[in-house]
Amino acid sequence: MTTLSTIAQDARVTRQEVGTIESSVARGTIDRPELETFVNQHWDIFDSDARTSINGLLGRIGAPQHRNTGTVQLRSEPSLSAVFSGDVVLGRERNPTHESVVFVQRALMALAKRDENPRLMPEGGADGNFGTNTDRAVRAFQEDVMRLPDDEVDGLVGPDTIAALDDDLRNGEPTSPTPPTSSTGRTRFSFTPNADALRTAKRSAAGARFVRRTPEFASIYRRAESLTGVPAEFLAALHANESGQSESRSLGPESGFGLDDRWVTTGWANRQLARYGLGTWARGQNSSRAALQSAVVAAEHFKRNAGAIDVRVGPSMTTREVAGAVTCYTSGIRSGQSALRSGRSWMFDPNDTNPHPLHPGGTSRTAGGRTVRVPPGRKEGLLRWDVLIPMASEILTA
Question: Any idea what the Cα angle at residue 340 is, between residues 337 and 343, rounded to 5°?
C-alpha cells in the first residue's frame, strides 16, 4: 500500500510517483483531504512535471489546484525579520509554532531536493510546527552545510542559521554531506580516525585478516548496501567482528553475521527479505545465497536498532549518530542513547589509541546456539568500528 510519507522520504516527488498516488486515490487508500494536505505541505519537493500532473489530479477530484509560488525567499518574508535580527529564535522548545516556521521548513525542503540530501528534509513537510523532524533537519543543515563543530549544533534557527539558509538557497551550489577525509584512512563518514589506533589495528592479527578477507566478501557488502542503504563499510565491520571473516570452516551463526536468535526471529527476517525478493532465509547455512540474505537481514536489524534512538542510517551520519547506531546494535538502546549523546562507547571511540574494544562484559551466542558469558576486558580478536570503517573504506574504494 502506498503511503504519502513514504513517497516524500527521499525529498523528491516525481511524475511517476504522482501516477502511483493517482492509483491509490482511485482505490480509495488516499482520500482528498489527505492528498490536499500532502500537496500543500510538500510542494517544494515536487518536480516541475510532477506539479503539473498533481494539479491535474486535484482538478479531477474537485480539489483546488496548488498555486505555484516558486522557491521561498526568506528575506522577503516579513515574519522572518525578527529571526534575522535575533529578536526571535526558532526551535523545538522556542517559538515552535511561530508563523515563520513554515518558511524555514520550505527552505529546508527546497535544499533537500536540490542537494539530493534527505537529511535536510523535515519529514512532516511544511506543517508550520517546529517539532522533532524539523529539529533533526536543522541540525543536519548545521552539520552538512554550515559545517559547525558538534558542540555548536543545536537545532535552533537564529540569525546565523537563517542567514546561512538564505545564502545557500539563493547562492549555493548543490552540496552533498561529504565528511572530511584523513591521511590516516579514507572514509565517507564524519569522524577522523585515530592515527595511532589505525596503525596498530593494521599491524594486528585481526587487522591483517580484515585486509585479506574483506575483498572476498566485497560484492556481498555492496549488494546489501544497494538494497538496504546501509553502508558496505558497516557490513564489513559487523561481519568481521561476528566471525564472518574467520578462515575456519565454521563461520558462526548466519554466515558469520551473528544475528542472535534472541533478537532476530526467522519470521521477522523473512519479512525483510520478502521486500527485496530474496526468498526464505537459509538460516544457519554458509552458502553464497545465505550470506547475501544474512547481510540484508543484518542491515535491516542495524537500521531497526538505529531507528530506536532516532538515527537514520546512511553515509551522511554524524560522529555521534555512528557511535549511537553502532552501540545500539551491539549493546542495546540505553547504551546507544548514551553513545549518541557522547559520541563514543566501548565499540566506537576515535580518541582511544588502542583499537581493540574494552568489552564491558555480557553474553554471546556460539556457533552451536549456546549462550555464553563474555568477561570484561580488552578483546584482542576484535577491532572497534572507528578503525574498521576507514579500513573498509580504503579496501572497498580501491
Answer: 140
